[in-house]
Recover the amino acids of this structure.
């Protein structure tokens, strides 16, 4: 029996750990009321980008061709198309008559509306990606 | 695309996980290929053929 080197879970765990540490640092910074200077933020963003790229590269090299196909399909059909309902959701949330924008703002008072809007689009795209990814794999069972 | 992967695997008493390990792919991929719902790339088809010491045409059948 050959020893399997198919271990795509390790880079994912690395990514989860990286983002966990990142959010813990952001949370600690907010709780302590500290503010990084603009230069520091830029350096931190660059470090996160490099670490994420490295882990994503490891993940891409670890997965097999079917998993790569699933990723490509999910990004193309799921994530890109989900941006459309994401924009519609933004439009609904920002409509004054519903008052949802103010409610969201009260939930995260430190977050700018621009960042919140960006996050909503990213979350919509992530949901679209996960849905398309699940449909792809379900079709191959 | 039809294939004889399941038969060839069964002849060797390999589980899908065994075959997946030998091909360095996931068990889900082996299942998808066996059921004809996923067509492997040419490099993977060659790896499969080499593993079973057969030609690609002896394992995969073009339905076109």
């Amino acid at each position: 029996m050959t020893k399997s080197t198919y271990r795509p879970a390790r880079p994912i765990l690395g990514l989860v750990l990286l983002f966990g540490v990142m959010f813990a640092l952001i949370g600690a910074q907010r709780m302590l009321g500290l503010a990084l200077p603009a230069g520091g933020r830029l350096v931190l963003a660059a470090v996160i980008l490099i670490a994420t790229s490295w882990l994503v590269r490891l993940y891409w090299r670890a997965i097999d061709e079917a998993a790569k196909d699933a990723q490509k399909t999910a990004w193309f059909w799921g994530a890109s198309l989900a941006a459309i309902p994401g924009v519609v959701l933004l439009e609904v949330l920002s409509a004054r008559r519903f008052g949802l924008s103010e409610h969201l703002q009260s939930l995260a008072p430190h977050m700018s509306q621009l960042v919140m809007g960006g996050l909503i689009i990213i979350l919509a795209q992530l949901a679209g990606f996960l849905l398309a990814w699940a449909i792809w794999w379900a079709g191959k069972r | 695309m039809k294939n004889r992967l399941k038969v060839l695997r069964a002849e060797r008493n390999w589980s899908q996980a065994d075959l997946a390990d030998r091909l360095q792919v996931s068990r889900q991929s082996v299942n998808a290929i066996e059921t004809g719902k996923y067509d492997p790339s040419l490099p993977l088809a060659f790896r499969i053929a080499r593993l079973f010491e057969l030609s690609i045409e002896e394992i995969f059948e073009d339905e076109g």
The CA atoms of residues 115 and 125 of chain A lie 15 Å apart.
